[in-house]
Amino acid sequence: MDTKGRYQHLTYTDWTVRETQFEPDQFRYRETVFTIGNGYLGTRGSFEEGYSQASPATFIHGVYDEVPIVYTELANCPDWLPFTINIDGDRFRLEKGEILSYERKLDLRQGILSRSVRWRSPNNQIIDIHFERFANLADEQVLALRCQLTPVDFAGAIEIQASINGYPENQGFNHWELLDQGKTEAGVWLNLRTRSSRIQLGIATSIKISGAEASLQVTSPPGYPTLIASFLASPGQTVTVDKLVTVFTSKHVENPVATACEKLVQLPEYSFIIKTHSQAWEEVWQKSDIVIEGDVTAQLAVRYNLFQLLIAASRNNDQVSIPAKTLSGFGYRGHIFWDTEIFILPLFIYTQPEIARNLLTYRYHTLPGARRKAVHYGYKGAMYAWESADTGDEVTPRWLPPNDPYGEDIRIWCRDREIHISTDVVYAVWYYWQATNDDEWMRDYGAEIFLDTAVFWSSRVEYNTKHERYEIREVIGADEYHEFVHNNAFTNRLVQWHFEKALYIYDWLYKTFPDKAIELEDKLLLSIGRRSRWSDIITNIWIPYDESTGLIEQFEGFFQLQDINLEEYEPRTKSIQAILGIEEGNKRQVLKQPDALMLLYLMRQSQEPPYNPHTLQANWDYYAPRTDISYGSSLGPAIHAILASDLGKTAQAYERFMQAALVDLENVRGNAPEGIHGASAGGIWQAVVLGFGGIQMGDSEPIAHPHLPPGWTRLKFKLIWRGKWHEFDLGNGEWGQGDQGAGSRDRGNS
Ligand code: BGC
């Protein structure tokens, strides 16, 4: 820390995040920042030697287990990192002895986390220690950790211990029962099972030492198998220890522990594994990289956000999706929200559509849960869970305890009322289909999702005979500060859009795959009567919108609420809801995150009503100052950045953009310890490509209308549209000058 008690910021180069000081106060936030993964699992950036302040975690997609209050959570899996070093009886720990030099860095290009320390032990022996680790992208069940030890000024005995910790905890709760453990010629293994979901996990590890003659031993305290190596080292001599790990679960193979042991024996050398891993990363970046010149912080931050999403998305499993905090922390317990479809999906749809397909297919597999939810609430069709996990059943907690021990429990209404999720899912289905022309997927998966959620809406929408219009009452819109509203414009217009597209898809299916259309007609009871109700809803649903002023009323009665001037609350460090309380917040015209503006953003892509430049301006002027953008939801800033940039508000756009881009790297909201803000990361991709790059997907191909932030001299990325790659290499025109492609070096060139 510096003299003012602030922590030392990370430093950035094009591809690397660097920490140049050990900062014990920043443990958990930095553990999130230095998360690595490979789409199968994610491992937080905890130190190998272990500390009491640490919160180590490895999460494997789909490994959920029951827990009180929130029903189910991703179980923290056995920790594969433990690695201790003893030098003549002194155990290497950063708060003991003296740190003579320190650097930890995450290489985003290759997905490798490393740390170099020169340490003086309490016994006054100086040693260079270099760690590196990665989760193999080329072979997902393989993890690797290398430690290199070079005595600087002494010759002596060194002992290392490499273990697997079979007692991982989810904030005090251990999901695992130990079944068995043992050793083989190659190393040691553990066999465990989750307590309720009974998912079996097998994990095995080996070590290999080069640069010294070592004696090897195994100890196996229950649940903590350990490989021990001792050797003599002399000044300047580097000894390398490679710890390799394999991990399988019964979600994936029949006998995980046997598979893990077999795999361990077959593993090639570390140097070969790291080579194939780096090659795999190179291929990924070929598709998804974004180059920014003229602003190194933005360059690094954008790559960092992409990296965190690229390691969170499953490449080989379509039964799982990306949790709100990715696989990087305990926040939201591994639950999946609209964050995935609305914020994260575009990156994948337009750069790696096969991953987008996996993520959307998860919603197909969870239709049974969505149907159970609809039945529970007395509706028809499929009603998606606001928070979803393995089955698709609703897992939003009903009640949460307050922070104040004498306070009342808090009822979480999102499970009952934040129902726009069902259309958020199909919004992504639609754009996936538009971008890929993947008709087979639409036939086999997408259409059923689309049509059965339309069936739900048709049973949820009410007809108001007095006003002769359809309405949707008792909802929560995108803005969660208002928990009981009628006719939220965002929800109503999206539902209208949903029916428009559902009828289109129904007709398309009928023409293109009539057998499938008939099958779904029977299965989902899509009678002519039902479909004509959909058309009637399209024509007669009420959207609170004044065409003459262009102003959308967020919901019925919003303009009658008490107004607020957010500036009067500055300076502050808390959200308005934390300051006013839930009840008072409900009574004011203050938003947690964009709502009417979110609607305009979603309609901006296809320029559908009520989106037009005039409504955008009118609603921006009204809602932006009333949005708790810095302390409300982290989903807001990237969207505001895009809209501000459309409106030529240069400084504000950039400020919002950086606020989102650095949310985890610089712990902007103070909650980075809970995990990566996945939606914000996805919003960053949209802000760069759809916002600053101004990409519009026309009917034929994507076209750029760039307006780059000042200082950005180049913006370069690639998009795949209907099977064809389009490369964009954009230069800086006049910021805010408009959207006619000013400064574009190359527009839509494929
Ligand atoms: C936001 C939601 C979001 C959720 C998970 C909430 O604070 O208001 O929009 O889906 O966090 O990120």
Please explain how this structure is put together.
This protein has 750 residues and is an alpha+beta fold. It has 20 helices and 31 strands. The relative contact order is 0.09. It binds beta-D-glucopyranose. Beta-D-glucopyranose (BGC) binds next to helix 5.
Mean pLDDT: 95
Ligand types: beta-D-glucopyranose
Strand content: 15-25%
Rg result: 27 Å
Question: In the CATH hierarchy, what is the class of the domain at 34-285?
Answer: Mainly Beta
**Within the largest sheet, what's the order of strands?**
1-2-10-11-12-13-20-17-16-15
Structural class: alpha+beta
Alpha carbon gap, first and last residue = 49 Å
Shape: globular
Give the number of helices: 20
Number of strands: 31
User: Could you name the CATH homologous superfamily of the domain at 34-285?
Assistant: Glycoside hydrolase, family 65, N-terminal domain
Largest sheet: 10 strands, antiparallel
Q: CATH topology of the domain at 34-285, what is it called? A: Beta-galactosidase, Chain A, domain 5
Give the helix proportion (percent range).
25-40%
Which CATH-level-2 architecture of the domain at 34-285? Answer: Distorted Sandwich
Low-confidence stretches: 1-5, 734-750
Summarize the structure.
This protein has 750 residues and is an alpha+beta fold. Residues 324, 332, 337-339, 480, 592-593, 633, 635, 679 line the site of beta-D-glucopyranose.
List the helices and strands and how they pair.
Blueprint: E1 11-12, E2 16-19, H1 27-33, E3 36-37, E4 41-43, E5 58-60, E6 64-67, E7 71-74, E8 83-87, E9 90-91, E10 98-107, E11 112-120, E12 126-135, E13 142-151, E14 156-163, E15 176-183, E16 188-194, E17 200-210, E18 214-219, E19 226-233, E20 239-249, H2 256-266, H3 270-288, E21 290-293, H4 296-310, H5 338-351, H6 353-365, H7 367-376, E22 399-400, E23 410-411, H8 414-417, H9 421-436, H10 439-460, E24 462-464, E25 469-471, H11 489-512, H12 514-524, H13 528-540, E26 545-546, E27 551-552, H14 576-580, H15 582-586, H16 596-604, H17 613-623, H18 636-646, H19 650-661, H20 678-692, E28 696-697, E29 702-703, E30 714-721, E31 724-731
Antiparallel strand pairs: 1-2, 2-10, 3-4, 4-5, 6-7, 8-9, 8-14, 10-11, 11-12, 12-13, 13-20, 14-19, 15-16, 16-17, 17-20, 18-19, 21-30, 22-23, 24-25, 26-27, 28-29, 30-31
Helix pairs in contact: 4-20, 5-6, 5-9, 5-20, 6-9, 6-10, 9-10, 9-11, 10-11, 11-12, 11-13, 18-19, 18-20
Bound molecules: beta-D-glucopyranose.
